[in-house]
Structure formats: structure tokens, C-alpha cells
């Protein structure tokens, strides 16, 4: 009853209409009646969320009926102030609601923009405060002069208010749809520069009070302070800041000063605040002027005091004080990586182009020109008309990365294939567009880096230009874009962890839904394969047990070529041929897979890996035994290979959940759909749209249960019923995807050092970890500091071996473990001594000290001796037992 009274109080304070109040109350009560415990703990804390959802949905409805309505009837600021809720807590609760309930797309988009705006605003406001503190003289320098101290305080407050007010107006007017931290920061630096020039020189620190002595009173504005500011905040893009100031900010300020002439009765700060209110009323989101008065709802709660009496300041500062520095460092890291690169083809690339049957240089340049035009137009229409120059700069950075990766890719292929003619690849339009799109995706992600104080696990915000936006701009099929991602990551090894993760997530998005949309080139590829092949994609194992599937090396040079010939050389699955019958069978598997094009083969394999990994996790949480997991996987795999139209305009996870339910039900170990969905919801990639909004037919959508009954089961009933326990024969189980090749099929031998335990040596040839350059010790991790690369010579290599010997011997002397743990744990060397496994005294006495050879001669002799022993073992005839 108390929560109902609070609901009415908030609605009355906001002066909501009766209909809006009733709608908000229905939404709120629906949430409270759900099974989620969090809603029942503190019902009043969710009132503001219900009011917000009602306001946005009402705004959408009115905007549909009557054009020209600029914003919702109530702003986020008004709702939070009426409900006394902190904005960070509001965002946390709204994101919780997105996971638990169906929230309309218009609400989700408005919420995302509001959170991005808030994160940028709070980061820049706190940064601006610190900059002004560093620009103005400190109180200690005023020589106990009370008047000067008072003047300093008043001027600091006044110019901080002027600067922030001017900045939020300029940002709202010039970059209305741009939630870009760096662009906003550059604009703020320009505003600070403009305001500083109005401050009395004696109130500024010496380095910021510099005035060009040779400049007279002309219309030319001095820029020396701007350069000093950029250096002070470690912003190396001085030219970009100067261009933004000259092209956008100064003309805007001139227009603002002309407009002020009609408001002579207002002070400068009052005029600026009035101008901002016009922008705020049109948006109805967050009143950024409230940062100046430090309204409590806008700032995260202060860090809690721990039991030791110390505040958790590290987490607090990381969340709200470092996003600007992090963004600058991330962007600067990318620029440093591409410092020596050009936005045009390098001499090495031009040489590759000349080796083609037809030199593609002119075509490449013309394609880039067309794509640059499309990119700038798309970026400006999405982010704002004033972002054209920004779009051009980012496209040029993307071109540098594009040519850098292309050169690395061709060099790698030349080393592998011993050829320099790559005509089929370099004359493929889709390859170039996909590679450029991948490069630009990295650039867009880098500039979009922003740490959210309400979602500490989110490092990069989605925006209107987030993936797959770039695919639409360049008109690239997701299936084609997927062909370059793995090669891109393989050749560009210096990408940030966030960039690598982002591209991997983009690939997963393509695998589970994007490539399965109507009109996808994937269906054309699968139709061609099905119509030209009568063989099954898999050879079922004779024993009924799942076997290992073989994957091809995903190289762009193969992904963009015609279907492979039925030739074992084109299938990199086994490695080398073998005379054994087992190896011949596996080669047959690989050859049959080779009937598909290289790209389709790799795509289906990637889908299988992703699907099986997710299925394993779900079955583990549902406590489904391994034998039943294998049957579910067979059903799932059958859908992917033989029923691809079931996935059309649907999601991979929908087929997975239906397969789990169907097989469990038919073998009489039923799992309720409610339990399956509950497990799916805790997956990191889950979305409620997957199980609440499934395509049925002709544009009709319903729940996943309806899809199972009306579409999935009628299509697969015959196949699924074959798994009934009463059936004498069941379908052969599909092979289980595995990323690791069996050691029996490896062309290389792994040697055991004689007399040594847990010490194995394998050749470095073809190793992905082999580096052509000496290892830089500054780049090594604490564990790899003990890395010895066999083949090293000189005293440094000997010293490394001795160091490893010392560590191992010291480890064995000092540590003791129970008899059940007799293996040395090399991976635990870096752990603390309290966490190490301990050896027993008996084991220490029985086992001789483990030593590595001190020289290459000794190592070579050991290897030769061990090789001879292995060969001798093979020649010894095996004794067969006589039949009794």
C-alpha cells in the first residue's frame, strides 16, 4: 500500500494525465507480478522506470500520429528528481528490465542515447573542472591577499560556468546526434581556450598566460594557448582541434554573440543558460546545466568505506574519472600503430598489383574514392551534418589499416605459396570492400571507446554507426564479410584486446543470425552445394561414437575463390597423407567436405563450433548426460546442414533450444521449455527477442514454444522420432566439432627427454608461436620470462637454461605435495608460495633433480638417443596371446 501511495505522489508531482498514470501503473504492476525477486525487494525504486517507459512510448505514439513533436512530455531529469533516484541506479535498473521484459525498441534506443550522453557529460565535466584548477593560480600563490583570493575564487567559478554552458550549447547545436567522446573533448578544449583568453593574466599560471608579443590588435585570434592546452591534456591532435575551432566553434560563437544583442537585459551566463533550455526542451533527456549546481542525482554515490576504513577509491576513480584519458590513449595507440603507414598503396603493394594479370591499381583507387564518398555521406546523415570532416579523417585512418593488413596478408601468402600473382584475390571487389569495412570497424570502435559508470563491464557503447552499420553503407553481405575476419586478426597482431573481442563478437553475430537473413548470399552458396553434391557433409563414425571434424585454414586467398577441386591438396585437414586405413578414412571425410567451396566449408565449420560450444554449456547447466548431448547435437547438426531454411530470418539459438526440448522429450527425459529458456537467459550472448519474438510465417512472430509446435516439429518429426528408445536402429551420431587435431595425425613427433618427467620437446617448424625476430623481454609476461627458444646460441641461451634449472630445482626442494599429486606444475611457478602444490619428502628422495641440458650438443645427443629408442621399439614384434 505504501508503494502505491508513492506511485500516486510521483505521478501527481509530475502532473501526469489520468491515462498516462494508468498506463504507467499497469506496466509497474506487471513487473511486480513477475517471478524476478529484485522487483519485489524494493517496488518503489522501479516506479521511475515505469513512468519513463510510459513517457517514451506515448511520445512514439504521438509522433506517429502528429509529426513535429520534438521530445517526450517529461524528461529523465524531471522523473529522477520527482522520484529522488540517482541516474546511475536508474540506468542499472533499466538495463535489468531490458533483460527481464520486452521493452520496445524506441525505449531501448532513447535509453542508449541518454546513457551515452550522460557518460560523456560527466566525464568531460569532471575533466573540465580539473583543467580549470590547473590553469588558474592556486590560492597559495595569492600571498595571503584576501581580495585577490576572493577574486580568484569568483573568476574561477564564473569562467567554469561560462565554459560549461557554452560547451553544452555548442555540442547540442553542432553535434546533435554525435555521442563521440573525442569529438566532444576537442570541442570542449576549444571552449576552454576561448574562455581563458578573457581571464586576467595574473590569475592564470604562467604557461597558460602566454600572449604572442608580436600580435597587434587585429581580427586574428592568438592560438598559442590552444597548443599549450593540447600539450597539457596530452592531446596530440592539435591540428584537428584547431580545425574544429576555426571551422565550427568560432563561427558558432560569432552567431551566438550576434544573437545576444537582442537580450541586453540578460547577463552572459543567463543568456547562455536560456539558449541551452531551448535545446533541452527539444530533447527532454538530461539537463546538463545541473552539473554546475552539482545536483546529487547526477553523480554516482561516493565509494563505500571498507572495514579497514579505506574508501574503494580505485573502483570509483576508474569508473568516473578516467574515461577521457582512456579514450585518448586508445586512439593514440591506433595512430602510433599506423604512424609509418600511408593511406595509399605502399611500393610493396604496388609491386604485388603489377604481378597480376591486369594491374588493379587504378580500380583500387577509384573504388576507395567511391567508398569514401558513401562513408562520409552515411556517417554525416547518421551522426550529424557537421561530422563530414570527422568522417573523412576516420576514413583515412581506416585506409592506412586496410593497406597495412593487405600487405601483411599478401606477404604471408607469398611465403606460404611461393608465388606473387594474386590476381583472383586482388581483382575481387568483395574482398577489397570487406577488408576496408573490417579496418573501418576497428577505427569506429576505437573512437567509440567509453567506460560507463553504470555498466562497468561495458567498454564500448553501441551507437547508430555500430556494427553492422558499415555493411549497409558498403552494401556487403554478412557472409562475405565473415570471410576476412579471421585472416584480418591473424595478420594484424597489434590490435587492442577490445578490438579483437569486438571483431570476434561481430563474427559470432554473423554466424548466429545476420548471415541467415533473407537475401543472404549464404543460401545461394548452400543451394549450389546441395544441388551439385549427393554426399553427406559428414561421414558418420562406424562405432556410433562422435568423431573429430576437420577444419580448413581460413585464408582470404581461398575464401574469395571459386569452389575447390576434389583434391586433397586443397583441404588442409589432415596435414599429410597416411598409409593407414584410419588416416584414409579421415582423408575421405576431408575430401567430401572439399566438395563445398572453401568459404562455405569454413563457414559451416565455424557455425558448428559456435553451436556446439553453446549447446555444451546449456546441457551442462541442465544436467543433461553426455550421451544425450550427442543425440541433441546430431539433431541440431541435421538442421544446420539439411534444413537450412529453418534458420532463415531466425536465430541459431532458437534451433538449439528446440533441439534440446525435442530430443529430451522423445527419449523420455523431458526438460521443460521454461527451464531451457531460464538457462539460456543467463548466457552472456542471450537476448529475450530470441525466445519471445520468433518468426512463424509470413511476417508473423510468436514465442519459441509456438515456433516449436507450428514449424520446428512438423519439419523434423520424422527425424526426431528415430531417437525413440523403442527403435532398434537410431541415426548415426554427428561428429563433434573439435578445434584440436589428434596427435596421431600430426606429421611431427613430440619427443620426451630421456629420464625426465613432464618435459616434452616438439619442433618449432610451422609453429604459430615462432617469431622471426628476437623476443623483446619488455614485452614478455612474467611466465614467458622463463621461455627458452631452442636454437638460441651464445651465453644468453645458456644462462636461460641455468635460470630454468635453478627455478625447477628450488621449486622441488622447497615445495612438498601429497603422493596423489606427483607431477610438476610448471604453470604454477608464478603463483604465490601459499597456493603451490607441495611435494612429499619421499617423492623428493626417489626422483632425481630435473635439469635441462646446458648446451645444444647435449640436447641433440639426447634427442638422437631417444629417436633411436623409439625406432627400436617399433621393430620389436608384438606378442600375441594364444587362444585357449
List the helices and strands and how they pair.
Layout: H1 2-13, H2 18-32, H3 37-41, H4 47-65, H5 76-83, H6 87-100, H7 105-135, H8 146-174, H9 181-196, H10 224-232, H11 238-260, H12 268-283, H13 313-320, H14 323-337, H15 347-354, H16 361-383, H17 388-417, H18 423-426, H19 429-447, H20 469-474, H21 478-491, H22 497-512, H23 521-532, H24 556-559, H25 581-593, H26 598-621, H27 626-642, H28 652-666, H29 673-681, H30 688-692, E1 694-697, E2 700-702, H31 704-721, E3 751-752, E4 760-761, H32 795-814, H33 841-846, H34 856-875
Antiparallel strand pairs: 1-2, 3-4
Helix pairs in contact: 2-4, 4-5, 7-9, 8-9, 8-12, 9-10, 9-11, 16-17, 17-19, 19-21, 21-22, 26-27, 26-28, 27-28, 28-31
Description:
The chain has a two-stranded antiparallel sheet. The chain has 884 residues and is mainly alpha-helical. Strand 1 (694-697) and strand 2 (700-702) form a beta hairpin. The C terminus is likely disordered. The chain is globular and about 95 Å long. The chain has helices at residues 2-13, 18-32, 37-41, 47-65, 76-83, 87-100, 105-135, 146-174, 181-196, 224-232, 238-260, 268-283, 313-320, 323-337, 347-354, 361-383, 388-417, 423-426, 429-447, 469-474, 478-491, 497-512, 521-532, 556-559, 581-593, 598-621, 626-642, 652-666, 673-681, 688-692, 704-721, 795-814, 841-846, 856-875; strands at residues 694-697, 700-702, 751-752, 760-761. Helix 9 (181-196) crosses helix 10 and helix 26 crosses helix 28. The N and C termini lie far apart (87 Å).
Amino acid at each position: 500500500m505504501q508503494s502505491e501511495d508513492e506511485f500516486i505522489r510521483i505521478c501527481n508531482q509530475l502532473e501526469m494525465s489520468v491515462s498516462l498514470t494508468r498506463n504507467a501503473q499497469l506496466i509497474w504492476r506487471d513487473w511486480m507480478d513477475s517471478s524476478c525477486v529484485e522487483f519485489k525487494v524494493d517496488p518503489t525504486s522501479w516506479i521511475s522506470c515505469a513512468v519513463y517507459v510510459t513517457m517514451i512510448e506515448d511520445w512514439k505514439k504521438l509522433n506517429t500520429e502528429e509529426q513535429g513533436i520534438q521530445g517526450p512530455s517529461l524528461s529523465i531529469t524531471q522523473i529522477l528528481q520527482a522520484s529522488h533516484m540517482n541516474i546511475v541506479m536508474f540506468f542499472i535498473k533499466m538495463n535489468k528490465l531490458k533483460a527481464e521484459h520486452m521493452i520496445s525498441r524506441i525505449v531501448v534506443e532513447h535509453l542508449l542515447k541518454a546513457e551515452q550522453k550522460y557518460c560523456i557529460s560527466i566525464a568531460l565535466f569532471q575533466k573540465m573542472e580539473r583543467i580549470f584548477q590547473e590553469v588558474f593560480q592556486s590560492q597559495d600563490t595569492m600571498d595571503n591577499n584576501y581580495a585577490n583570493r576572493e577574486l580568484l575564487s569568483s573568476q574561477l567559478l564564473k569562467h567554469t560556468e561560462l565554459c560549461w554552458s557554452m560547451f553544452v550549447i555548442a555540442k547540442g547545436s553542432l553535434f546533435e546526434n554525435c555521442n563521440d567522446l573525442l569529438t566532444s573533448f576537442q570541442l570542449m578544449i576549444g571552449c576552454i581556450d576561448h574562455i581563458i583568453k578573457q581571464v586576467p593574466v595574473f590569475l592564470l599560471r604562467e604557461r597558460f598566460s602566454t600572449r604572442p608579443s608580436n600580435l597587434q590588435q587585429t581580427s586574428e585570434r592568438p592560438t598559442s594557448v590552444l597548443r599549450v592546452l593540447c600539450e597539457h591534456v596530452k592531446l596530440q591532435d592539435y591540428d584537428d582541434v584547431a580545425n574544429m575551432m576555426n571551422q565550427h566553434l568560432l563561427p558558432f560563437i560569432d552567431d551566438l554573440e550576434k544573437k545576444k544583442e537582442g537580450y541586453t537585459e540578460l547577463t552572459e551566463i543567463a543568456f547562455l543558460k536560456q539558449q541551452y533550455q531551448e535545446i533541452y526542451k527539444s530533447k527532454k533527456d538530461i539537463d546538463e546545466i545541473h552539473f554546475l549546481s552539482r545536483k546529487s542525482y547526477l553523480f554516482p554515490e561516493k565509494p563505500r568505506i571498507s572495514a579497514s576504513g579505506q574508501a574503494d577509491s580505485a573502483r570509483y576513480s576508474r569508473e568516473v574519472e578516467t574515461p577521457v584519458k582512456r579514450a585518448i590513449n586508445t586512439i593514440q595507440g591506433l595512430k602510433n600503430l599506423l604512424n609509418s603507414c600511408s593511406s595509399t598503396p605502399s611500393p610493396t603493394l604496388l609491386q604485388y598489383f603489377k604481378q597480376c594479370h591486369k594491374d588493379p591499381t587504378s580500380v583500387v583507387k577509384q573504388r576507395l574514392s567511391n567508398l569514401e564518398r558513401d562513408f562520409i555521406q552515411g556517417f554525416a546523415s547518421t551522426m550529424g551534418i557537421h561530422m563530414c570532416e570527422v568522417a573523412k579523417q576516420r576514413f583515412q585512418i581506416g585506409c592506412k589499416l586496410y593497406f597495412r593488413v593487405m600487405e601483411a596478408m599478401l606477404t604471408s601468402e607469398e611465403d606460404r605459396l611461393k608465388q606473387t600473382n594474386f590476381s583472383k584475390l586482388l581483382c575481387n571487389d568483395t574482398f577489397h570492400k570487406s577488408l576496408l569495412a573490417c579496418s573501418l570497424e576497428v577505427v569506429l570502435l576505437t573512437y567509440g571507446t567509453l567506460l560507463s559508470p553504470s555498466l562497468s563491464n561495458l567498454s564500448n557503447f553501441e551507437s547508430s554507426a555500430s556494427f553492422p552499420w558499415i555493411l549497409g553503407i558498403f552494401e556487403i553481405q554478412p557472409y562475405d564479410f565473415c570471410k576476412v575476419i579471421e585472416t584480418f586478426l591473424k595478420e594484424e597482431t597489434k590490435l587492442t584486446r577490445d578490438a579483437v573481442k569486438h571483431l570476434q563478437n561481430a563474427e559470432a553475430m554473423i554466424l548466429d543470425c545476420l548471415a541467415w537473413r533473407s537475401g543472404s548470399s549464404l543460401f545461394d552458396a548452400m543451394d549450389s552445394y546441395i544441388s551439385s553434391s549427393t554426399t553427406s557433409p559428414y561421414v558418420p563414425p562406424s562405432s556410433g561414437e562422435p568423431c573429430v571434424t576437420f577444419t580448413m585454414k581460413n585464408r582470404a586467398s581461398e575464401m574469395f575463390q571459386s569452389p575447390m577441386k576434389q583434391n586433397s591438396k586443397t583441404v588442409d585437414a589432415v596435414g599429410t597423407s597416411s598409409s593407414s586405413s584410419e588416416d584414409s578414412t579421415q582423408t575421405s571425410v576431408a575430401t567430401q567436405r572439399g566438395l563445398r567451396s572453401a568459404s562455405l566449408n569454413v563457414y559451416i565449420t565455424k557455425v558448428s563450433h559456435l553451436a556446439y560450444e553453446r549447446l555444451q554449456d546449456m546441457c551442462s547447466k541442465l544436467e543433461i548426460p553426455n550421451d544425450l548431448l550427442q543425440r541433441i547435437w546430431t539433431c541440431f547438426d541435421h538442421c544446420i546442414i539439411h534444413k537450412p531454411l529453418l534458420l532463415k530470418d531466425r536465430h541459431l539459438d532458437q534451433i538449439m533450444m528446440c533441439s534440446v526440448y525435442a530430443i529430451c522429450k522423445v527419449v523420455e527425459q523431458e526438460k521443460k521449455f521454461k527451464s531451457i529458456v531460464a538457462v539460456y537467459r543467463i548466457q552472456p550472448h542471450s537476448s529475450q527477442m530470441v525466445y519471445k519474438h520468433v518468426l512463424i510465417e509470413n511476417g508473423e512472430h510468436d514465442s519459441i514454444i509456438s515456433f516449436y509446435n507450428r514449424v520446428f516439429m512438423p519439419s523434423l518429426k520424422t527425424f526426431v522420432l528415430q531417437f525413440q528408445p523403442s527403435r532398434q536402429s537410431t541415426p548415426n551420431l554427428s561428429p563433434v566439432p573439435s578445434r584440436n587435431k589428434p596427435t596421431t595425425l600430426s606429421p611431427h613427433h613430440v619427443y620426451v627427454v630421456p629420464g625426465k618427467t613432464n618435459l616434452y620437446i616438439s619442433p618449432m617448424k610451422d609453429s604459430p608461436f615462432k617469431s622471426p625476430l628476437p623476443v623483446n623481454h619488455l614485452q614478455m609476461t612474467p611466465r614467458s620470462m622463463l621461455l627458452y627458444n631452442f636454437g638460441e646460441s651464445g651465453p644468453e641461451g645458456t644462462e636461460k637454461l641455468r635460470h630454468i634449472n635453478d627455478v625447477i630445482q628450488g621449486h622441488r626442494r622447497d615445495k612438498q605435495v601429497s603422493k596423489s599429486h606427483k607431477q610438476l606444475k610448471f604453470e604454477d611457478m608464478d603463483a604465490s608460495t601459499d597456493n603451490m602444490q607441495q611435494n612429499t619428502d619421499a617423492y623428493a628422495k626417489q626422483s632425481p633433480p630435473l635439469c635441462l641440458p646446458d648446451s645444444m650438443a647435449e640436447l641433440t645427443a639426447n634427442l638422437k638417443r631417444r629417436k633411436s629408442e623409439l625406432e627400436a621399439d617399433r621393430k620389436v614384434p608384438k606378442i600375441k596371446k594364444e587362444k585357449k
